[in-house]
């Protein structure tokens, strides 16, 4: 990275921080970014990073400081779970019972308690993963049966659209589910992960307390 790139990163990071209220956690989404770029943000004081791809996550984790909080944020394949369980801070995209089973089994073997967010499918798009609202309420109404996993809350992705009404409605739906779960089913719930670079303000207005921001911090991925 050049000095100019360092300065630009620091300016974008500062702008993002200033746009986020103090009660909202910021996870810097570093997929496709180099170890050097992550290190630069780390040197600015940032500690929470989110990655989608297991190979990338494992390679970066091995090269970067141990006090980074690594979040897994996308769809996770069960056969990859064992690679991240030893160090992952929060698994944000837990979207099936099969995945809960495997995470619990591997966490038990590793002698760790792993924190998870349950992903809810709120978008109109078929491509996004997650439990339906009904599946989620059924899951949380029953006793929690994964002793090595702590459910910390919910995660969701809104439809990728410029229609703010659609996005706001989807976030409001997830927020209502979160509040219901917190009050009635899951007393370990404290985290509602919703909002990315394009829709973070709408997500925060709807009650998000964790945003996952890539582009607004690191710059455009497609421009690279
Ligand atoms: C890539 C990604 C983000 C960050 O997206 P930006 O638009 O770069 O902020 C957030 N959440 C998930 C699940 C992602 O895959």
Helix/strand layout:
Elements: H1 3-19, E1 25-29, H2 35-43, E2 48-51, H3 54-63, E3 69-72, H4 81-84, E4 90-94, H5 97-110, E5 114-120, H6 133-141, E6 149-156, H7 164-184, E7 191-194, H8 200-205, E8 210-213, H9 215-218
Parallel strand pairs: 1-2, 1-8, 2-3, 3-4, 4-5, 5-6, 6-7
Helix pairs in contact: 6-7
Short characterization:
The chain has helices spanning 3-19, 35-43, 54-63, 81-84, 97-110, 133-141, 164-184, 200-205, 215-218, and strands at 25-29, 48-51, 69-72, 90-94, 114-120, 149-156, 191-194, 210-213. The protein is of the alpha/beta class and 224 residues long.
Bound molecules: pyridoxal-5'-phosphate
Q: In what range is the share of β-strand residues?
A: 15-25%
CA radius of gyration is 17 Å
Largest sheet: 8 strands, parallel
- At the fourth level of CATH, the homologous superfamily is Alanine racemase
Number of helical regions: 9
> How many domains, as an integer?
1
Fill in the CATH topology: TIM Barrel
Overall form: globular
Order of helices and strands: HEHEHEHEHEHEHEHEH
Number of strands: 8
Mind explaining what this structure looks like?
With 224 residues, the protein is an alpha/beta fold. The protein has helices at residues 3-19, 35-43, 54-63, 81-84, 97-110, 133-141, 164-184, 200-205, 215-218; strands spanning 25-29, 48-51, 69-72, 90-94, 114-120, 149-156, 191-194, 210-213. The chain has a single domain, classed as Alanine racemase (TIM Barrel, Alpha-Beta Barrel), CATH 3.20.20.10. It contains nine helices and eight strands. It has an eight-stranded parallel sheet with strand order 7-6-5-4-3-2-1-8. Pyridoxal-5'-phosphate (PLP) binds next to strand 8 and helix 9.
């Amino acid at each position: 990275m050049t000095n100019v790139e360092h300065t630009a990163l620091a300016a974008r990071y500062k702008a993002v921080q200033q746009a986020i209220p103090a009660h909202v956690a910021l996870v810097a989404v570093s997929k496709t970014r180099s170890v050097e770029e992550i290190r630069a943000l780390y040197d600015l004081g940032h500690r929470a990073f989110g990655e989608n791809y297991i190979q990338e996550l494992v390679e970066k984790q091995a090269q970067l400081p141990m006090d980074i909080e690594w979040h897994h944020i996308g769809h996770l394949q069960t056969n990859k779970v064992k690679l991240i369980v030893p160090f992952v801070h929060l698994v944000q995209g837990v979207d099936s019972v099969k995945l809960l089973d495997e995470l619990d089994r591997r966490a038990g073997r590793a002698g760790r308690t792993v924190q998870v967010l349950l992903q809810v499918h709120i978008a109109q798009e078929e491509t996004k993963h997650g439990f339906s609202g009904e599946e989620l309420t059924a899951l949380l109404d029953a006793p929690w049966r994964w002793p090595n996993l702590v459910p910390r809350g919910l995660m969701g992705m809104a439809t990728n659209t410029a229609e703010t009404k659609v996005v706001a409605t989807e976030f409001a739906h997830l927020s209502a589910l979160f509040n219901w779960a917190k009050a009635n089913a899951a007393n370990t719930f404290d985290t509602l992960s919703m909002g990315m670079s394009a829709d973070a303000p709408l997500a925060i207005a709807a009650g998000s307390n964790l945003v996952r921001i890539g582009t607004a911090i690191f710059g455009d991925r497609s421009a690279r």
